[in-house]
Amino acid sequence: MPALMAVVLAGAAPGSLAAPPNLTFETDSGVKVALPWYLQWQWLRAHPDRTPVDDRFGFRRARLALEVERAGSWDFKAEYDLESGQWTDLAAGLRVGSGRLRVGQYRMPLGLEQGSSNRDAVLLERGLPNALVYARRLGIGYEWMGEGSSVRAAVFDRDLSRAEEASGVAMRATWAPIRGESRFLHLGLAAGTENLDGQTERFSARPDVGLVSWRAVDTGAIANVDRTDRYSVEAAWIHGPWSLQSEYVAARIDARAGRGTAAGWYLLGTWTVTGESRGYRDGLLRALKPSRPWGAVELAARVGRLGLDGGFLDGGVVKTFTLGANWYVNAALRISANVVEVDSRRRGLDDDPRLLEVRIQTQF
Fold first, then answer.
1. How far apart are CA 134 and CA 140, in angstroms?
2. What percent of the chain has pLDDT over 70?
3. What kind and span of H or E run contains 34?
4. Minimal CA–CA distance to 31: which of 83, 80, 66, 82?
5. What is the per-residue pLDDT across 187-211, written as a single tens digit (0 to 9) for each?
6. Residues 50, 56, 59, CA angle at the centre, nearest 5°?
7. Which of 34, 129, 309, 349 is the right S-S partner for 24, CB 3.0 to 4.6 Å?
């Protein structure tokens, strides 16, 4: 492990702003083949309250991918996470009219942060309401990207790691009424429904950190669920080095036990000390790119809440306040630190730890 990190850090020295050395090949017929990979190596320091939380050190993600594309025609992506031992993306795309048809396992269209790569997330973990979204599923969908707007829709089943069957549909629409150089206003709506036909469902959330097994809120396995409905509202504003974004996600569960409801939100603000602006394309936020030989520095703060206690649910309520700092050394290397204050209550018991995580992220 030390030897690996020494190679990674040496290869991503701050002095070079050249593009990362991707393993990319292109044929005479215009087919491009790439073998990108990225690692997220983390350290957790915990100050627990009621529940024991151990300090940890290890990989959060270690992903390898194969990407094949013929521009304007078709594409294919297969990505495997060595840390979890699971396939993440395994999907093909085909250009149809002014949009793209996608088939396979990929991110379902519900939510702003969930639709973007975790490599582009400002803080180390996505906000609390992402516990309620679909993430990746097996499905078939269509994506249309217009001038300042986008529509994504999909019908889906379970993901590749689960044997249970389910069927659902989801749709997300976005609009950017203000667009300019380093200035955007983004608005979005999404909704989805899933038929579980008497199977189980579960909602839970780790409190803004990745290297913990503790769930601050947890409904446990909900038996005999007929269907779940989800809704989300999102907004983001970027103006030069400043940005502000927020999401609200709600879920309704119809089960034999009755009707349960869950909801969460967050508000995130960022300031790039070195002046760069976060990116925006096709209804999704992108990570900023450093413009100086020694990189870019970004500061962020987020407040969020998730309640899993509506109706017959008794999963608890958690609130978090997170401060973060990112050093984008260059296009290949990013060093980040987050401090998280947790305020949780479940079944009458409070649990309020303080957590610190540091990550080294490298990508090629």
1. 14
2. 93
3. strand 31-34
4. 66
5. 999 999 999 888 889 999 998 998 8
6. 135
7. 34
